[in-house]
Amino acid sequence: MASYSVLLFRLTGRYLFSPSSTLFAVFLCGFPCKNPKNVTGDDFFFSGLDIPGNTSNTLGSSIIIVDVKVILGLNLLGISLERIDFAPGGVNPPHIHPRATEILLVLEGTLLVGFITSNNKLIVKVLVKGDVFVFPKGLIHFQINISVSVAIAITALNSEKPGSIVIGDSIFGSHLPIPVDVLTKAFNVDADIIEKIQSKF
Q1: Which of this chain's residues are annotated to bind Mn(2+) (predicted)?
Q2: Is 108 annotated as a binding residue?
Q3: Which residue of 1, 8, 71, 92 is 20 to 30 Å from 163, comparing CA positions?
């Protein structure tokens, strides 16, 4: 076991077992596993989903994510949770979860929700309190509050680390900008329009 551990360290920089063959550290999905003897209730606990998020931003929405980075005990359990708050007119912009399907429950308000299928068909639905909607894994989806009061939703995702890629941020606000020539052809618009959009990000 010790030789395997040394090989693993050379390949990954992480020990599975120490050279003395005693348990040292196990990393699964990039997160360290805690020694079972030291596990407590706090490793499976989070408090705060009863507190509204701050929606005073340009999107008018707030997301509180409860994933493996928040509850370490979620590692390898394949589940996570979010609370989404919406001001009137607030939006959770088009995005994808590369590693999870999402199911959303409306607690308050009225949401227009939708996703785009792999053949570019838009599936939309208006949801009210108590309604549930599913967003399939990896598809672009969104939610917008179409009521005059606040809206609240809870979502569950079948991954402890679902990830989120916001389409606008990724296309127009990447750290190294996508070349303008690529975007002008992709969106069939002039360069000045692309540059103006990029400046907003």
Answers
A1: 95, 97, 102, 141
A2: no
A3: 8
Q: What is the pLDDT of residues 79-121, one digit of tens each?
A: 999 999 999 999 999 999 999 999 999 999 999 999 999 999 9
Q: Is 175 known to sit in a ligand binding site?
A: no
Domain assignments of the chain as residue spans, ordered by start = 2-33, 61-163, 170-200
pTM of the model: 0.82
Write the pLDDT tens digit of every residue in 166-189.
999 999 988 888 999 999 999 999
Binding site annotation covers 145? Answer: no
Tell whether domain 61-163 is in CATH 3.40.50.1100.
no
What is each CA distance from 172 to 76, 125, 189, 197, 200, in whole angstroms? Answer: 33, 28, 14, 7, 8
**Residue type (1 letter), 108:** E
> Which residues, other chains included, contact 11 with Cβ-Cβ below 8 Å and sequence gap of 6+?
none
Q: What is the DSSP string of 39-83?
A: --GGGG----TTSPP---STT-EEEEEESTTT-GGGTTT--EEEE
Least Cα distance to 111 among 67, 49, 61, 167 occurs for: 61
d(Cα 96, Cα 161) in Å, to the nearest integer? Answer: 13
Q: Residue 183's pLDDT is what?
A: 93
